[in-house]
Amino acid sequence: PDVIIEAQFDDNDAEHGQDHLQDLLGEDIKKLSLDTGEKGETKQDDVPKVNDPKLFPDKFLQRTAKVVYILEKKHSRAATGFIKLLADKNSELFKKCAMFSPVDHRVPRAYVSLADCPSDFPSRPEDYSNTLFICRIVDWKEDSNFATGQMAKSLGQAGEIEPETEGILTEYGVDFSDFSSEVLECLPQNLPWVISSGELAKRRDLR
């Protein structure tokens, strides 16, 4: 015999925000309260909580998630970037580590050991302000804002073609080392080698 009144939500309700929505739900909850005794008393357990997410429409909810495990590491963990001294000169880390800043901002900054950096870097850091380095991320503790990296090599000056190219290939895990002698033996040995006319006739020329 009780009439259940459903709350109506439209775009105007969304503009008032979540506080307005809770006020509306509070009023509707009072209407939905069922009499449990002759004196009109209601049980506290029968009244839904206003903050219960199940009462909110999907458009008012912000879904969240948490990373629990990495199944497969797709990134090479190598990055191209620059090194600089830490800002806090009085910290213990200043004497042990430098800061590596990747060019790709999707990769986190990392602490690298000063022992892996050039020997004159602590005394002349400005000399390496435009030098590209390759760093590999080896760890990232949960309680740290920065990862832990290991310096791999110095590439050269930023802006030059060869260092920039080598950095990109290393980041994407492309093997650009020299071909082995076994592979080179598959090539024609009698030089100069030319394509025969018969071979050209049955192939599409894309030169």
Automatic annotation (TrEMBL):
Keywords for this protein: Cytoplasm, Exonuclease, Hydrolase, Magnesium, Metal-binding, Nuclease, RNA-binding
A GO-annotated cellular component: P-body
InterPro entries from the UniProt entry: Dis3_CSD2, NA-bd_OB-fold, RNR_Ribonuclease
CSD2 domain span: 98-173
Pfam family, one: OB_Dis3
UniProt superkingdom: Eukaryota
Cell compartments where the protein resides: Cytoplasm
Protein name listed in UniProt: DI3L2 exonuclease
Gene that encodes it: Dis3l2_0
